[in-house]
Amino acid sequence: xxxxxxxxxxxxxxxxxxxxxxxxxxxxxxxxxxxxxxxxxxxxxxxxxxxxxxxxxxxxxxxxxxxxxxxxxxxxxxxxxxxxxxxxxxxxxxxxxxxxxxxxxxxxxxxxxxxxxxxxxxxxxxxxxxxxxxxxxxxxxxxxxxxxxxxxxxxxxxxxxxxxxxxxxxxxxxxxxxxxxxxxxxxxxxxxxxxxxxxxxxxxxxxxxxxxxxxxxxxxxxxxxxxxxxxxxxxxxxxxxxxxxxxxxxxxxxxxxxxxxxxxxxxxxxxxxxxxxxxxxxxxxxxxxxxxxxxxxxxxxxxxxxxxx
Length: 309
Ligand SMILES: Cc1ncc(C[n+]2csc(CCOP(=O)(O)OP(=O)(O)O)c2C)c(N)n1
Known about the structure:
Rossmann fold; 6-stranded parallel sheet; 8 strands; binds thiamine diphosphate; DH_E1
């Protein structure tokens, strides 16, 4: 969680330099969902993500230098500098890809689950998506198929209350619940607090166990809040649909501060160790940014190559 937070804070503070030339969707405030779910996975398990991908990529073990090089549009980037922030991939880490077409990775992750089952492997496929994506028809088609075939897929819905700037109340009828939709299709579903990393981990662990035992798909819906604007490094509390009061309330529940408090109270980690951890991460972040900023740009002649595999 702290790595994701510190990397994204650095992206935000350097973005105005205009040397990162791709849009960035910041997940500050939502880190516990990526960290808690990925902590329940094995290296070979598969994860897919969205436009808001940094946390999922890093939590699954994606290479930080390759991510930063990608965001800076460098040849050493994980998509050779052609994709940017919304097209991260690290196959070695089981991070199968992020795609900004909302909802598009839900059927792909379902297919990964199908291939795992057909091949008799016990790989679990996880797809992260926002609650906006759950309003796409392909979500219902995918979960129905996964339930029918008892696929080892975990659908993780990060409900931050907004699709760009449209709040839930303007998008859904009263009483609508994505977990009830999932249950109607025969998918095991549960809701949890997206600020509680241990709670997220526990729910994910149970879903992973079910998937590996051949008991089929699960849907986990976590309540959360994005602290920054939909796209870009700034705040957006000035917008009519958002408010400083809401932000302050969610900030009180910061997943990192909450977990740090728990670790300290339980004497599991001292202030020195926390400071050391922070310093260690910051030096990795320095190193990754220095690498990305000075790495060579891709050869223009290769612009059309490697687009399909
Ligand atoms: C198919 C499609 N429709 C619309 C968009 C424009 N768009 C980009 S992000 C977004 C909102 C997605 O909201 P949600 O899935 O809840 O994710 P969040 O941004 O809140 O993390 C939209 C509508 C898109 N990229 N793809």
